[in-house]
Amino acid sequence: MQKFMLGICLAALSVTFQANAGSPDPGVEKGAIFAQIDDLTISRDEFEAIFQSAVRYKYYHGTVPADELDEFKKQVADDIVTQQLVFKQALKEGLQPDRDQINEGVDAFNLKNASDPEWETRREQVIPQLIKKLERQDLIEKMEAQVRDIPAPDAAAVRQYYLDTPEKFTEPERRWVSVILLKVPPFANEDEWLEAEAETGLLKQRIESGEDFAALAEQYSGHLSASNGGDLGYLHSGVLEPVVQQKIEALEVDQLSEPIRVLEGVTLFRLNGIETPQLKSFSEVKDRAASLLYLALQDSAWESYVSQLRSSANVHVYE
To answer: In the chain, count of helices (H) and strands (E)?
Structure first.
């Protein structure tokens, strides 16, 4: 949550909320109000500006997938509310921003805009807003760090966590796979693909007739593993392309696949063995278990804290 909240805060630098002594601005039509958080009114235009900044921050192409849009809007709205409530609490508790960190942020912003010919004329207007935003974010982060500063779990709790969540410490199933790849040029025509499939089929027949897979891989394969007889070692599910993974999961041990087209050419796979899921011993994973449990407890403490803030505040989001 912290990184995402940071993105909303700094990306929405130009947004200025309206403080209205506990009630919506009478000059703003009710339908234009997005949310009321105690004495803070957020208009729909302000929310839209923050939302679009959050989209650019999280989604590389600047577009939210349709099936994620509603959930993402809810997440942004929840983070806006959380930021405001945590910020107010930080002020109430008298936390002070880190001046050195704020100055570093201002210097970085100045440097980023130094080549902009209009920067000098805009600087005096923008920098004060930037400082306020950086101070606000610093206080939010300090407040969160304070809440998350909890005692580490004892050894008994860590062991119980290991026993209660074995799926977190279980090595998933792995398959030992070998491959022969007959490369096909990227812009090859269909005849070239068919020829490669036929050659791969002949190699399969030779192996099924008793020839050594590794020797043929060394001789014919264009894959990086050729020098190692095509051995890819033990692979977790999901490492290979979905179409290849599906084919391999259907194989019995020592069985060869049919020729399979992939991006680089035509492949022939052999399943050499299957390693079943294995629960690691507590001694192997106790440090990781301690870290995971501590993080879970920190998250729980933070979620509980935010929930308490929200329950004691006047928050209304207009859908």
So the answer is: 10, 10
Rounded (5°) CA angle 242-243-248:
95
Judgement on whether residues 135 and 8 belong to the same structural domain of the protein: yes
Query: Do residues 90 and 185 both lie within one domain?
Result: no
The residue segments making up the domain with residue 110 are: 2-149
Nearest to 139 by CA among 85, 212, 207, 71: 85
Q: Is residue 305 part of a domain?
A: no
Residue type, 41: T
What do you get for the CA distance between the two ends of the chain, in Å? Answer: 23
Distance between alpha carbon 121 and the CA centroid of its chain, in Å? 39
Do 113 and 207 reside in the same domain of the chain? no
Q: pLDDT at residue 225 above 80?
A: yes
**With bands split at pLDDT 50, 70 and 90, how would you rate the model's confidence at 204?**
very high
Burial 80-101 (b: 16+ CB within 10 A, else e): bbbbbbbbbbbeeeeeebeeee
Does residue 156 belong to any structural domain of this protein?
Answer: no
Reported as a single tens digit per residue, the pLDDT across 131-145 is 999 999 999 999 999
DSSP-derived pairing of the beta strands 174-183 and 265-275: antiparallel
DSSP state of 284: H
Once rounded to an integer, what is the mean pLDDT over residues 73-82? 91
Q: What is the mean pLDDT of residues 30-49?
A: 85
* Number of domains making up the chain: 2
Domain boundary among 96, 117, 149: 149
Task: Report pLDDT for 31.
Answer: 64
Alpha-carbon span 139 to 136, nearest angstrom? 5
Q: Is the dihedral of CA 56, 62, 64, 69 positive or negative?
A: positive
Q: What angle do CA 271, 166, 292 make, to 5 degrees?
A: 110
Does a structural domain hold residue 126? yes
| Residue 192 forms part of a structural domain | yes
Residue 114 scores a pLDDT above 50: yes
